């Protein structure tokens, strides 16, 4: 049993049968396998920086493509002892040592956002393409620095906004471009989830605005609902002109768990995001596109799409993972679905949110508390109305009262 670089030997190993395997899919996945066979390509070497926490999810997702011969896991790096490292895979506490020794072709960066710039830059300079967890970085200066690093190294960064891999988004964009909705005036996101006290203590940066003097912004907008925000921005892929926010928290954390965010895009189209992690009934993060000739609805995680004239939502098949898309780009130049440049509008929004006043905490008497969950009573109805009307919470009457000053991020 190999020792762990920087750690005592004899770490526990996980049996392959203990790892969950996602169901197989055909289509784009089969085409990628065929391409590799035709070209006589060997499995792409993949390394993971950030092997614990959410990194465990990435490790599970690597099982199936490894079994299909698309990739081989060649290294794990984490400053903390790695949980259940797989047999035969070297483990490092120093990512730079791993990059130098195993020379991976693809590196997955799954670490807190404030570490992304340095780690991704190191991977690019080591000659690897990168799949980086969202959010990519937290200001445009860092985003532009990574874009420049891509150009200098000739490598690429794919940001793990899974919603951009949705074939339903492709179908929706085509419908918008063809004029099926007429002129688009508003895109709305409505999401109501529940996260308990344990969620906000899952790591040292959970619920924090800054960590060691660096921005973190581990709130509802930048983390759990980031996929929906990015997908809403990607409907039109237009520059961001203005960002406004009204946000709050139901527990003593530094970030928001409930927010309304209004983004004005070039041309005057607005994106209204109304989300909470203290919700009542669950709403996954549905996206609605309002045009002067009709409305479209997209379930962002289920690839369900209803266009004008459709009696019901239709499943749009053909989704592939962003790792598979990155492998296809490397094999045949297939365009990246979530390349770093495409995610720049999201980083613009996050940068503006950093400048906004901190979220305010609501009074305890407007909450229902049970089993570690704090529910903001009446929040679903308020957010649903905000999403439909394009309004921020502080522009409406809410059950928790007139919540203080305007929380506009800019303008």
Write a brief structural summary:
The protein is of the alpha/beta class and 411 residues long. It has helices at 28-39, 55-61, 63-67, 95-102, 116-125, 140-153, 167-177, 226-234, 322-332, 344-354, 379-389; strands at residues 44-49, 71-77, 91-92, 106-109, 129-132, 157-159, 184-194, 210-211, 214-215, 240-249, 258-265, 270-276, 278-291, 294-299, 304-306, 314-315, 360-361, 367-370, 373-376. It has a domain at 166-318 and 366-395: Dihydrodipicolinate Reductase, domain 2 (2-Layer Sandwich).
List the helices and strands and how they pair.
Blueprint: H1 28-39, E1 44-49, H2 55-61, H3 63-67, E2 71-77, E3 91-92, H4 95-102, E4 106-109, H5 116-125, E5 129-132, H6 140-153, E6 157-159, H7 167-177, E7 184-194, E8 210-211, E9 214-215, H8 226-234, E10 240-249, E11 258-265, E12 270-276, E13 278-291, E14 294-299, E15 304-306, E16 314-315, H9 322-332, H10 344-354, E17 360-361, E18 367-370, E19 373-376, H11 379-389
Parallel strand pairs: 1-2, 1-4, 2-3, 4-5, 5-6, 7-12, 10-17
Antiparallel strand pairs: 7-13, 8-9, 10-11, 11-12, 13-14, 14-15, 15-16, 18-19
Helix pairs in contact: 1-9, 5-6
């Amino acid at each position: 049993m190999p020792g762990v670089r920087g750690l005592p030997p004899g770490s526990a190993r996980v049996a392959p049968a203990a790892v969950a395997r996602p169901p197989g899919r055909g289509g784009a996945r089969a085409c990628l396998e065929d391409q590799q066979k035709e070209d006589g390509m060997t499995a792409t070497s993949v390394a993971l920086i950030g092997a614990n926490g959410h990194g465990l999810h990435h490790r599970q997702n690597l099982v199936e493509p490894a079994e299909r011969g698309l990739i081989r896991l060649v290294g794990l790096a984490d400053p903390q002892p790695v949980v259940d490292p797989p047999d035969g895979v070297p483990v490092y506490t120093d990512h730079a040592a791993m990059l130098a020794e195993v020379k991976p072709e693809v590196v997955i960066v799954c670490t807190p956002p404030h570490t992304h710039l340095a780690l991704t830059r190191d991977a690019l300079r080591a000659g690897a393409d990168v799949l980086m967890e969202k959010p990519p970085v937290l200001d445009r200066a860092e985003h532009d620095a990574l874009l420049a690093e891509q150009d200098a190294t000739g490598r690429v960064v794919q940001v793990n906004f899974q919603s951009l891999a949705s074939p339903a988004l492709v179908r929706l964009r085509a419908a918008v471009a063809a004029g099926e909705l007429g002129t688009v005036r508003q895109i709305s996101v409505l999401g109501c989830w529940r996260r308990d006290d344990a969620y906000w203590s899952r790591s040292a940066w959970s619920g924090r605005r800054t960590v060691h003097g660096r921005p973190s912004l581990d709130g509802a907008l930048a983390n759990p609902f980031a996929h929906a925000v990015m997908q809403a921005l990607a409907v039109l892929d237009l520059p961001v002109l203005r960002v406004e926010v009204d946000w709050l928290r139901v527990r003593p954390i530094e970030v928001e768990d409930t927010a309304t965010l209004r983004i004005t895009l070039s041309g005057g189209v607005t994106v209204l995001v109304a989300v909470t992690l203290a919700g009542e009934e669950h709403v996954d993060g549905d996206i609605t596109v309002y045009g002067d000739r009709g409305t479209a609805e997209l379930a962002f995680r289920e690839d369900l799409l209803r266009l004008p004239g459709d009696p019901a939502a239709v499943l749009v098949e053909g989704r592939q993972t962003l790792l598979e898309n990155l492998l296809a780009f490397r094999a045949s130049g297939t365009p990246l679905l979530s390349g770093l440049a495409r995610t720049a509008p999201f980083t613009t929004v996050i940068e503006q949110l950093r400048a906004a006043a901190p979220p305010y905490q609501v009074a305890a008497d407007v909450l229902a508390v049970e089993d570690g969950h704090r529910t903001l009573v009446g929040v679903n109805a308020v957010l649903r109305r905000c999403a439909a009307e394009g309004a921020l919470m502080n522009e409406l009457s809410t059950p928790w009262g007139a919540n203080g000053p305007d929380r506009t991020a800019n303008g």
